[in-house]
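Course assignment 3, question 2. Fill in each field.
Student: A.L.
Task: Predict the tertiary structure for the chain below.
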Amino acid sequence: MRSFTRLPVTCPVMLGPRDARRRFGVVAARGAFAHARRWRLVPLGVLPLAVLLGIILLLAGCGESPPAVPVPRTVQAATVVLAARETVACRAFPATVRARRVVTLAAKGAGAVSTVYAEEGALLVPGAPILQVDDTELAERVAAARSGRQAAERQRDAVAARLAYAAANLARTTELVRTGGVSRDDFDRATAEHGSLREEAAALEGRIAALRHQERELEATRGYSRVTSPVHGVLARRLADAGTFVAAGQVLAQVDDLSGPVDLVAAVDEGLLPLARPDQPVLVEVPALVTFQAPAAAQSSKSSAAPQSAPQSAPQSVRDARVAAVVASVDATTRTFTLKAQLPQDMVRAGARTGMFGRVLLPTGRESRLLLPAAAVVRRGDLDVVFVADANGVLRLRPVRLGQIWHGLERPDGLWLLPLPAGEGTGDGSGGNSGNGFATPAGALLEVTAGLAPGDRVVTDPAPDLADGDRLAAQG
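Answer field:
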C-alpha cells in the first residue's frame, strides 16, 4: 500500500487553488502547487480510494483458515524406570607394578666382564646365564690346588709303603727281642720309625683333605664368575658391560622374580588409613593389559533384568584383588601412606612387569544414589536434558542437574562405582549422548542430583530427531 504525505493545514495545497490565492496571493499559490507536483505529493482526493482498497484487502485476509496443529509422532525408543540403588563408591589412586622379590646379583671375585649373555628386559629361567667375568686367575688357582692335592696323594702312597715295611720290621724285631736275637736298641729304633711313619701318613691325609677343600672352594668361587639367574623372572637391570672391570661384591644385575607375588603399590591419602586393612577386597587396573575381560562381564544378562539397568562399563583391565600390606606410616611431605595390592597371577602371566602404570580402586563406603545412563542425556544450549515419558507415553524434555560420571560394575555385594580416568568423558560432571557432541564411555553412569525422581521413565538412547511431544509406541 502506498504511503500518503500529510501536509499542514496552512499549506496552499491543502487549502485548494481558490483559498490559496485568496490567502497567499497568486504568486505564492502557483509556487506551492509547483512544489507539490515536483515531490509527487498526493492530493487529498486520492485518499478515499486508498482507504477503500485497504479495507477490501483486510477482509480478504480475514477469510483464511488457521494453521493446522501438527499430529504427534509415534516413535520406538528404549526406556528405563529409574530407581535409587545402594552403591559402593571407589576412589582411584595411581600405582606402580612392583615385584615383591627382587634378586640382586654381585661378583664373587674381581675381574673383567668377558661375555654378556642377556640384555635388560629379557625373560630368564633358573640357571640362565647373564654375563661372564674373566676367571683365568681362578682357573689357575684351581689347577694349582689340584696339583698340590695330587702330589700329596702320591707322597701319602709312598709313606704308606714305608709304613707297611716299618710295621713288618717292628713285628720281626719284637719276635727277635723275645728270643734275644736283637738288642733292645734295635727294637726301640724299629718302634720309633714305625710311629714316625704312621704320624707322617696321618699328616699327609690331613694335608690332602685341606687341599681337596681348597680346590672345591676355588671351583665354587670360579662358578660365581658366570652370573646366572636363580629364579624365573625378568632382567630388570644389568650394571656392567663387556670389558668392565668389577670388584668383589660389586652389584652386577637385578632380576625381578615373577614366580612369586607381584604387587601394585599406591600412595593413598592419609584420610583413608582407617579404611585400609590387609586382605581387604579392592579392584586393580593395569591399562596396558587390555586383553582381560571384566570379572563380572558374565553377569550382564542378570543386570538387564534389574529394575534399573547397570551396564558393565568397567574397563576390561579391571580385576579383583586383595590388599597385601598397608604401611601405616604417613609420609610427612605427601601426606600419603603406602598400600600394596597383590596382582592376580593371570595378569602376571599376561605381561605385568615392574614399572607399569596401574590404579588401585579402594572402596570408601556405601550410599544410595539415583543413576542414569550417560547416553540418555542430551545437551540443549547450556542445559542437560532428558526425555521423560508421562503416564500416556508422551515424551517431555526435562532439564536435570548431574553429578559425577562413573563406570558401573556389578558384583555379588552390589554395584561398585569406579571413577573415570583423567581425560575420559566430559570431566565436568555433565554427560550426554554422543550424537549431541559429548564423548562419554559406552555404558557410563551419571549421578542425578536434581530434576528426576525414582519411578521416572527415561529414554535411554534418544535419536537425534526425537522431539518434545512425541509419543512412545505401545509395547507388545
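Instructor remarks: The chain has a mean pLDDT of 78. Residues 12-62 form one domain.
Grade: pending
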